[in-house]
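Database export, one record per block. Field names are fixed; values are copied verbatim from the stored entry.
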Amino acid sequence: MIKIYTQIEQGQKWLENYRKKQPIFACVLGFTATGLIPGISAAGATPRDRQFTCLADAEFLHDGPKHQPRYPLPPLAAGASPTLISRAVIEAFNIPLYLFNAGLPIAPSVPAIDLGGTPANCLTSGNALQLETIKHLLEQGLIWGDKLAAKTNGSYLILGECVVGGTTTALALLMGLGIKAAGKVNSSHPQCNHAQKLAAVTAGLSRANWGFAGRKQTPLELVAAVGDPMQIAAAGMALAASRSCGVMLAGGTQMLAVYALMEAIAREYDFLWRPERVTVGTTCWVAEDPTGDTIGLANEVGGVPLLVAGLTFAASSYEQLRAYDRGYVKEGVGAGGCAIAANSIANWHSNRLLQAVEALARRCEIN
């Protein structure tokens, strides 16, 4: 079920090193007002819904189905939250879960480690976050990366994210780092809204005078200008953890951007890390999205194996799950990484994973 699309030899070695091993899962939660731009994201039917998507996903990831959740999973134009996939795997294999609040306007309803960040302004402002906040989140990420690595016991860390609008801030980060990412990123829409994303990113980079300031600009300044709080916290965690354990950046476009940020930070600050221990893990709905170019983007970023869970929900009895095979949702909340882990631990294939997700769906009556 696991395919390797880039850096194949390195990816095979990574899989061999961690096969049958029990990972731990950390999910970094963040917010950017970019996600409230009308039409920018399908992770919530309306901008108001999208204000609560992260809170709902985190609650479900931690607690599973509840009779009266504090934050119910938001209605989507089509599909169901990818947190169902991650939760099904976490339940099945009793994977330890750590939630991190990197910057949310409202505290989660479930236990989460507060990293002391803030929500990001819309990236079009060119002033998404304060530089001091970015420095603080990087420091906290490095501290917690070491702490999480110590809990893996020779296994690996799955590092997921939940940020509505995060593929747009990822595009901003990638372009600001000089990576040819326009037209290559993904979206929760079935047809990626490349023009809308590019217009927002171009406006933000222009307002920040990025690349035109006549002085050396740092990766941290780039995140402050057009990024989101998850990116820098996750980059710090992965950099530090890689020195002691394997790391799977669980996501598509957003985690490729995090990896690019890690490389930039390591170069800028001469930070010692172990890139050969890091992979990006996602779903085939992302990697094979005909309206994006994830594989091309991974090659542009360079150096990181792209591991892909070959999934299909086409035979599901739930319309919301069948929507994945029509291009909706695709990924999020570490879904691809968790699917890869299920295959690695117990040889779960697509049908077995679907059974687990449908069993969870029946419990929360998504139909």
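Remark 1: Strands lie at 2-4, 24-30, 97-103, 113-114, 156-162, 246-250, 278-283, 306-309.
Remark 2: The chain has one domain: 2-362.
End of record.
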